[in-house]
Specification:
Layout (H helix, E strand, L loop, with lengths): L2 H52 L14
């Protein structure tokens, strides 16, 4: 083996290692973003439920409209 082929193999291994490292970083960032989005969604749902319970419809159950 000559020096160029050894250097080429080492460069290829280094590129592979760097790309794996970058992929892991991106995956961690996406996981953190998804977690934050899910937490925000849960909080929004709780807010909607609380608002629905605190302010019921003013005529719900008081007037029944029946047509024959």
């Amino acid at each position: 083996m000559d020096l160029n082929s050894i250097m080429g193999a080492q460069l290829s291994q280094l590129q592979h290692t760097v790309s794996l490292s970058m992929m892991k970083m991106v995956q961690a960032t996406q996981t953190a973003s998804a977690t934050v989005m899910l937490q925000d969604f849960v909080q929004a749902q709780q807010g909607v439920q609380q608002a629905a319970q605190a302010a019921p419809h003013p005529t719900a159950g008081n007037v029944i409209d029946v047509s024959v």
